[in-house]
Amino acid sequence: MTVELLILLVVIVTALAFDFTNGFHDTANAMATSIATGALRPKIAVALSAVLNLVGAFLSVAVAATVAEGIVRLDAVSGHELLIIVYAGLVGGILWNLLTWLFGLPSSSSHALFGGLIGATLASLGWSGVVWNGAGGGVLYKIILPALLSPVIAGMVSALGTWSVYRITRGADPGKVTTGFRWGQIGSASLVSLAHGTNDAQKTMGVIFLALVAHGTVTADTQIPIWVIAACAFAIAAGTYLGGWRIIRTLGKGLVEIESPQGFSAESASAAIILTSANFGLPLSTTQTTTGAILGTGLGRGAEVRWAVMGRMAVAWLLTLPAAGIVGAVCWSLAHYIGGLAGVLVVFALLAGLAGLMYRRSLRDQVSSHNVNDPAPPSPGATPAPSEPRAAYRTPAGEEA
């Protein structure tokens, strides 16, 4: 086995590790509101989301093509150098995912990956190595512009939907309305999970494809191999089933107090926008889209919005691309200047060490399916505000559990 092949295997394993973190980091996008309103039990919610993420990953590869061809100028770099760029970008994305998960912040896994790749490319090739714009779109039009527009559009659609729902049902029996929309949430949350699989799993497919191009296993014009699609689908599904409980709590309880009609409106708006973007090959941030939709439900209902929580999320969004980019650039520099397999292994050891430290830190204030609906503290280690005793869980049919 050659050194280049060993490096390729390390890159693929790291890519699947990123896909796994993407799964548990973004579970909240689909299931936070359904868990918060009691439409689904927490464990059932993440299991359903995992299955639908798996199915969604096989539906399209349009987004994967954008990731593979829309960030790094493939005609400017190849071979070992491209492998190191991809590897460093992945490490930047993973570390940002883990840090924001630790703080319970629903930041964008997509932008963490793109930021890492852009940072590593800038460190390696300079400004000209990144596809900023062009006939096919580039970073500005396919990443930054959708990032700015998606939460705004999702919020507007969700606010209108929420206002309409409460307007239409204002004379109906509240119990029947709640029960009906809880059942509706099962369908709308499932659709978001399916949409998430069609969008997010493909980003890792695109990255692995880049690595294969760099190694010479495939050419830039080759179709993405089926084993890459399957591996990414199972990795994101496994991460989803683990459940990103810290972020689920923030989205479900930290931003707006959500009722079942609001949850249905938020999920429906998110699914429509994410599926539309996947159809056009736009690697949209599902996190920002969902957060915008949840915020819109609060505005549409006239409920209290916790703007301090929204402010922390917005800061995380602004920092994602540059922070992941800095980590990607540093990791590329380490791997490049140490050189060869030794450089790759040093960066891998750094990744494993920092990931272990963040995991140990998370054990001080664990969040699980048992306390996910408790109020979210402002930061790790903070004492949650006292809350009213929670009512018994009821299934969509209204039966107490």
From TrEMBL:
- Where is it found, in Gene Ontology cellular component terms? membrane
Coiled-coil positions: none
- Where in the cell? Membrane
Q: Name one GO molecular function term.
A: phosphate transmembrane transporter activity
Q: Where is the composition biased (Pro residues)?
A: 375-387
Which UniProt keywords are present, listed alphabetically? Answer: Membrane, Phosphate transport, Transmembrane, Transmembrane helix, Transport
* InterPro entries documented for this protein: Phos_transporter (IPR001204)
Region Disordered, residue ranges? 368-401
What Gene Ontology terms for biological process does this UniProt record contain? phosphate ion transmembrane transport
Xref: Pfam families: PHO4
What topology does the record note for this protein and the membrane? Answer: Multi-pass membrane protein
User: Membrane-spanning residues where?
Assistant: 44-72, 84-105, 111-132, 144-166, 224-243, 314-335, 341-359
Which family is this sequence assigned to?
Belongs to the inorganic phosphate transporter (PiT) (TC 2.A.20) family.
Protein name in the entry: Phosphate transporter
Q: Which organism is it from?
A: Nocardia speluncae
Q: In the record, what lineage is assigned to the organism producing the protein?
A: Bacteria, Bacillati, Actinomycetota, Actinomycetes, Mycobacteriales
